[in-house]
């Protein structure tokens, strides 16, 4: 593999080769030559080279055309045939959580309850007494049998540390006995609306809390300091840039995290563009000062609201019309917001009338159908306009609801990595028939819906290349589906790339300024180690990011 070569332009030679009129044009800050540039522009989808001026794409074309932009101070990047794409725009992340999780106990690949326990104990031993053990992102579906862990499993190794570690989907978490005590959760504590306290045969809490039941523990966890937030965000930015991510849509951008972003921006450290979401229930906090969707600048914007309709498939809290096959006494749970549907609808309509954007989490088929109904009611109440309504995850659909996404102008904000993760075990939970409408990328595209791809990091890795691999192959992580799980829902590599770039830009109302490599747009781009359009899609999993540029500046080089 050859390294990308940066050389100063030789002005005399380059301008001697250029036509006389080229000497009067602007000089580029940077030119990229000798590559395979996928612009995303249907008029000119492929090029060899591009020029960057003042952080924006100035020209795209052949090497000869772009060389004319080089001058004495121009940096020339010799790509040597590498593939260039627009920078990836992750449409759904929890950025602070992702950065914080990088430094916490790593449980995602723990192969057994014993390994799970031992990792927690070893990590707790590195912390001062009383410090919380958080994050984890464990996955009990890797275990045989796939039984949920209990507080008794970890109490002996964490006597001096409260523990609250979440399953990788973020919709249930395990508390040790000390954490339950601090939160005041006992056998007499009732299940909250939209949540469940898992109990043993004697009625005692096992330590497992689902959805709204987790809030009691979150309420007693100390808030992170500004310094801790900044440290986590810096770690998250490094991880994002290493994976070619130049924009993120942060679904958990609390006021404290927004202050962290603002400080990084003021200090010149912010290396991703951020669109930060606030909770739907707090919409008046934005509406009262007159903030509307897209308030801010190219680096940091707000105005999108995140709401919840249900939980997750892995936690059996995703809301379905029919019961789960492996837990036939439940069809899932409405969220604590959807429990009072009229109040949630009032919040949605009020926020929409104020010009804010709605992004609602919906996993189960009933949750998706319900949110589509509510979106239709919001549009009827407030009249027609370009809303860019979003369903986050859009995971399970009845066939008849898929055309409604296009008809109602709703963006499907999806995370394709989940398909190859959940596909290991989803059918034991919902069966083969319902699985046909699961992660229905092909059906949604064919119906004319806009796909915006993301990762849901820290629930899944913030690796767009793995997301593209997942969407194009649907090969589950356990290797059980080499020809793809529900292969009729596969899409092409180009369609997946578009969803990670132009589709995500559309979802945040920024398709006019980013998402494709066209003159006048932001020079956010990624250089890959292989041409993912030319190789077997299965080999995309082995492709790496060689270079990431944000606004024409290199923010990562492998």
CATH class of the domain at 97-218: Alpha Beta
Q: Would you tell me the structural class of the helices and strands?
A: alpha/beta
Strand residue content = 15-25%
Give average pLDDT, whole number: 94
Low-confidence region ranges? 5-23
CATH architecture of the domain at 97-218: Roll
Largest sheet: 9 strands, mixed
Note the gap between the termini: 12 Å
Number of helical runs?
A: 19
Estimate percent helicity: 25-40%
Shape label = globular
Descriptive overview:
It is a single chain. With 558 residues, the protein is an alpha/beta fold. Strands 9, 15, 16, 17, 18, 19, 20, 21 and 22 form a 9-stranded mixed β-sheet that branches. A 6-stranded mixed β-sheet has the order 4-3-8-23-24-25, with helices on one face. Helix content is 29%, strand content 22%. Among the domains are: 5-81, Roll (Urease, subunit C, domain 1), CATH 2.30.40; 97-218, Diaminopimelate Epimerase, Chain A, domain 1 (Roll), CATH 3.10.310.
Give the topology, please.
Blueprint: E1 5-8, H1 11-17, E2 30-33, E3 36-38, E4 46-47, E5 49-53, E6 56-61, H2 63-67, E7 75-78, E8 83-86, E9 88-93, H3 95-101, H4 113-124, E10 133-138, H5 151-155, E11 163-167, E12 172-175, H6 177-183, E13 195-199, E14 205-211, H7 215-218, H8 226-242, E15 245-250, H9 255-266, E16 273-279, H10 283-287, E17 295-296, E18 300-308, H11 341-353, E19 357-362, H12 365-382, E20 390-393, H13 402-407, E21 411-414, H14 417-422, H15 426-435, H16 441-446, E22 451-453, H17 464-473, H18 493-500, H19 502-507, E23 525-528, E24 545-550, E25 553-557
């Amino acid at each position: 593999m050859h390294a990308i070569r940066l050389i100063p332009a030789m002005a005399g030679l380059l301008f001697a080769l250029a036509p006389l009129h080229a000497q009067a044009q602007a000089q580029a800050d940077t030119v990229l030559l000798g590559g395979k540039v996928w612009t995303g522009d249907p008029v000119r989808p492929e090029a060899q080279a591009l020029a960057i001026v003042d952080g924006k794409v100035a020209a795209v074309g052949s090497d000869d055309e772009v060389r004319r932009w080089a001058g004495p101070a121009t940096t020339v990047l010799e790509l040597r045939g590498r593939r260039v794409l627009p920078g990836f725009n992750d449409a759904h992340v929890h950025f602070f959580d992702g950065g914080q999780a990088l430094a916490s106990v790593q449980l995602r690949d723990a192969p057994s309850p014993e390994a799970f326990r031992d990792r927690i104990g070893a990590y707790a031993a590195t912390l001062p007494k009383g410090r919380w053990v958080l994050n984890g992102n464990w996955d009990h579906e890797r275990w045989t049998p796939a039984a949920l862990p209990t507080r008794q499993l970890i109490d002996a190794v964490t006597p001096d540390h409260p523990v609250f570690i979440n399953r990788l989907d973020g919709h249930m978490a395990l508390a040790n006995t000390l954490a339950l005590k601090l939160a005041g959760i006992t056998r007499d504590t009732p299940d909250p609306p939209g949540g469940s306290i898992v109990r043993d045969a004697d009625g005692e809490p096992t330590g497992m809390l689902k959805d709204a039941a987790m809030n009691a523990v979150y309420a007693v966890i100390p808030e992170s300091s500004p310094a801790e937030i900044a440290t986590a965000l810096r770690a998250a930015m490094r991880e994002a840039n290493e994976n070619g991510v130049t924009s993120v849509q942060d679904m958990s951008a609390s006021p404290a995290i927004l202050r962290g972003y603002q400080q990084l921006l003021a200090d010149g450290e912010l290396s991703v563009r951020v669109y930060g979401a606030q909770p739907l229930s707090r919409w008046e906090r934005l509406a009262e000062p007159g903030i509307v969707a897209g308030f801010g600048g190219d680096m940091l914007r707000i105005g999108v609201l995140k709401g919840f309709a249900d939980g997750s498939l892995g936690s059996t809290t995703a809301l379905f019309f029919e019961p789960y096959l492996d837990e036939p006494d439940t069809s899932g749970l409405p969220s604590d917001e959807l429990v009072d549907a009229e109040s949630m609808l009032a919040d949605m309509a009020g926020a929409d009338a104020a010009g804010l954007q709605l992004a609602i989490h919906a996993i189960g088929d009933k949750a998706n159908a319900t949110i589509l109904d509510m979106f239709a009611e919001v549009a009827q109440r407030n009249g027609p306009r370009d809303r860019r309504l979003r369903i986050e995850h859009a995971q399970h659909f009845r066939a008849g609801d898929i055309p409604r996404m296009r008809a109602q102008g709703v963006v499907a904000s999806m995370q394709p990595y989940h398909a190859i993760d959940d596909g290991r075990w989803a059918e034991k939970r919902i069966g083969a028939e319902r699985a046909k409408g699961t992660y229905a990328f092909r059906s949604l595209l064919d119906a004319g819906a806009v796909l915006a791809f993301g990762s849901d990091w820290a629930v899944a890795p913030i690796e767009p290349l793995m997301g593209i691999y997942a969407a194009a192959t649907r090969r589950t992580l356990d290797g059980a589906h080499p020809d793809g799980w529900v292969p009729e829902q596969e899409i092409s590599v180009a369609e997946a790339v578009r969803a990670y770039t132009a589709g995500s830009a559309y979802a945040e109302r920024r398709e006019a300024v980013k998402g494709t490599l066209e003159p006048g747009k932001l020079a956010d781009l990624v250089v890959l180690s292989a041409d993912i359009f030319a190789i077997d899609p299965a080999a995309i999993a082995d492709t790496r990011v060689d270079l990431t540029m944000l606004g024409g500046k290199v923010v990562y080089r492998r």
